[in-house]
Amino acid sequence: MNEKLNTLRAGVLGSNDGILTVVGVLFSVAVATPNIFTIFIAGLSDLLACAFSMASGEYASVSSQRDAESSAVKVEQKLLQDDISSEIKAVKKYYVSRGISDETSTEIAKELIEKKPLDTVVNTKYGIQLGHYMNPWNAAFSSLVSASLGGIFPLLAMSLTSGIYRWPSTIVAVILSVAITGYLSAKLGNGLAKTAVIRNIIIGILTMAIHFALGKLMNQF
Questions:
Q1: Could you report the per-residue pLDDT of 122-160, keeping only the tens digit for each?
Q2: What is the pTM of this model?
Q3: Which residues fall within 8 angstroms of residue 99, CB to CB, at 6 or more apart?
C-alpha cells in the first residue's frame, strides 16, 4: 500500500509540474506570436521535455533510495552475525525511547531478535520494512504519464480555441487542472484539501501572470 501511495503521489506531483511548465511556455510564446502552429510546437516540445525529465529524475531518486536501503540491510546482516549483542541493545533502545520499561524492552528485543532478527533491526533502526522497496520503474512511468496528461489540458485549450476564447479557456483549464492536482495531493498525503487547492490555484495564477509579463517583455525586443 505504501508503495502504491508513493507511486500515486509521484504521479500527482508530476501532473502538477506538467501543467505549470507547459502553461509557462504557452503564455510566453502566445504573447510573443499569434501563430498557433508555433505556439503548439513550443508547448508540445516543453511537455515532452518535462515528462521525460520528471521520469528520469524520479527513477534516479527512487533508485538511490532503494540502493541505500539495500546497503543498510547488508550492514545489519553482518552485524547480526558478528555483534548480535549490539543489535539487541539497539532494538531495546528503540522501545525504551517509546516509553517502555528497561526490563520489558530487553525482553521484547531478545524475543524479536530470536524470531525475526533482520526484519526487526532494519525496521527499528531505519524504519525499513524488509522486502518493501518502491519500484523506480513504477515511479518513473507514473511521472512520465502524469506529467504528459497534466500538460496536455492547457496545451489543447490554447491550441484548439481561437479568437476571444483562447485566453479565457486556457486560464480556466489551468485553474481547474491545478485545483484537481491540489485536491488529490492533499488526499494522498492526509492534508487539508481546501488549503492545497487554494495554494495550487494561487501558484497557477502567478505562473500565468509571470510568463504573460515575460512574453510581453520579450515582444518588445
A1: 888 877 777 666 678 877 887 888 888 888 989 999 988
A2: 0.70
A3: none
